[in-house]
Prior knowledge:
Elements: H1 2-9, E1 28-35, H2 37-40, H3 47-50, H4 52-61, E2 70-73, H5 81-97, E3 101-109, H6 112-116, H7 125-128, H8 133-161, E4 169-174, H9 187-195, H10 208-218, E5 222-225, H11 227-230, H12 234-237, H13 250-266
Parallel strand pairs: 1-2, 1-3, 3-4, 4-5
Helix pairs in contact: 1-8, 4-13, 5-8, 8-10
Amino acid sequence: MRRVLILLASGSLTVALAAPVVAAMPTHTVYIAMGDSLAWGDGASVPDHTGYVPRLAGYFQGASHGGADQLINLGVGGATTGSLLSDQLPQALAIIGDPATDTRVITISIGGNDLLNLINDPTDACLVNAGSSTCQSLILAAMTGVATNMPQILGALRAALAAEPGDAKVFVLLPYNAFSGTGNPLEPTVALVERGADPGAGCGDTGLDDILACTAVYFGDVVVDSYPLFEGRTLQLTHMGEGFNVHPNDAGYEVIAKAHRVADRGS
C-alpha cells in the first residue's frame, strides 16, 4: 500500500484550476459543507439542527471564525471521493466563482464510504474473508482512489479560493472507526485500514486517515481528527448499538462539531 502515499508526492497531483472571475463586491459570505451522510446529518434527531454542519454554521457566523452568513450544504448520503469529485466539486466551484459570494469556510467529510462500500453485503469478499487476496486488492483499489481523488478535490478548491477577496479555511474530517468498542470482529481490521500500523495520522503511514491528513496538510488545509474521540465510545456516540448503523447520534455530532471548533482555534 505504500504506493498509495507515493501518489501524494508525485507528479500525479493534477489540480483542476478554476477560471478567474472579475472582481466584484460580494453580497453573501458563505460556508460550504461537502461530503457524505455525516455532512448531511444522517442519524441526527433533526439533521438540519443537530447534525455537525448546522451546529458549525452558527459558529462560523462569528466574525473571528469566518463571518459566514449563509450555509450551503452539498452533502449527500453515500457519497465517495469519486462522486464528490464529479458531482459536489463542480457545484462548490460554481459557488466560489460567483462574484455575488465570498466563500469563507468549507468543511469536507468524505472517504468513509470508499471503504464501507466493501462491507455492505454479506457476500462481499471483505466480509467473507478480510485477509483474502481479493479483499486486500479491493482495499488497495479503494485507497488508491482516495489518494487520486483528494488532491484533485482540494487542489481545485484552493485554486478557486485564491481568486476570492479574503482568506478561507478548508477543514478535512478524518473518519472514526465505527466498530471501536463494539466487540465486532471487524474492529481491528477497520482500525488497521483506517490508521495503518501507526495509530496516528500523517504522511508516514498508509491508512485512509493518513492519506486524508497528508493531502490536507499538503494543501494547507485544517485536519479534524475524529478518530481518537470515538475510540471505545461508538456505542455511546453512534447508532451501532441498534444494528449496522455507523452514523452518529446527536452526542456524536456534537463531538464532531467541537473537534472542528478546536481545530479552528488551533490553526
